[in-house]
Amino acid sequence: MATVFDKILDKTTGPKSYNWYKKEVEKITTPGARSLINTGKATLRPKYGIMNLFGYDPKYKETLPYYDRFPLIFPLEPARGGFRGLNFHYLQPGARVAFLRQLAEYASDSNFDKKTRYNIDFVNNSYFKRTTKHYLFSQVRTSFLNIPADEMAVAIFLPVARFKKGSPY
Q: How far apart are CA 108 and CA 118, in angstroms?
């Protein structure tokens, strides 16, 4: 079954610009985050080494200035009651591209295909500081949609972020 990612990737013949991906995403009817999760390859726990999209309801949302109901994350490591992850939705689209390019150095190969895995170490830079979040398993509300390397460039542009109480930008 073709996914929204496949529809865009089938049109690519090589590296494309930020604007090209943005226009291709706008051309298709954008499915909602829940629809993507329900129709794609999903797991009950985050899959390390690739990007994941899932539904989340923060335990302490009353104390947060804003939060994302559908994080798009790279899981980093287990943490008390859950895991830490890099949520790309906390960056504007241009910064998402730059951050994804930075993370390429942690890829297992230069093919950036379904077999590529990322082994990400903590780096002291502004992207890590803005995107690193602690997620509790008890607050996860959907399965985790697994997004392999060959679909990440499309995924970062899909308008599936659902911020409540404000926005990080």
A: 6
100-151 pLDDT tens trace: 999 999 999 999 999 999 999 888 889 999 999 999 999 999 999 999 999 9
The answer as to whether 83 is a domain residue is yes
Encoded tokens for 129: 């500081």
Q: Beta strands of 7-126 (E only): which ranges?
A: 42-43, 51-53, 67-68, 72-79, 82-87
Residue 99 vs residues 10, 22, 79, 80, 141: alpha-carbon distances, Å:
24, 16, 23, 26, 27
Q: How many domains, in total, are found in the chain?
A: 1
- Domain limits at 59? 34-164
Q: Has residue 89 been placed in a domain?
A: yes
Answer yes or no: is 65 within a domain: yes
Q: Domain for residue 16, yes or no?
A: no
- The tens digit of pLDDT for each residue in 42-68 reads 889 999 999 999 999 999 999 999 999
Quick check: 66 and 169 in contact, CB under 8 A?
no
Question: Which residue, chain included where needed, has tokens 């404000």?
Answer: 166
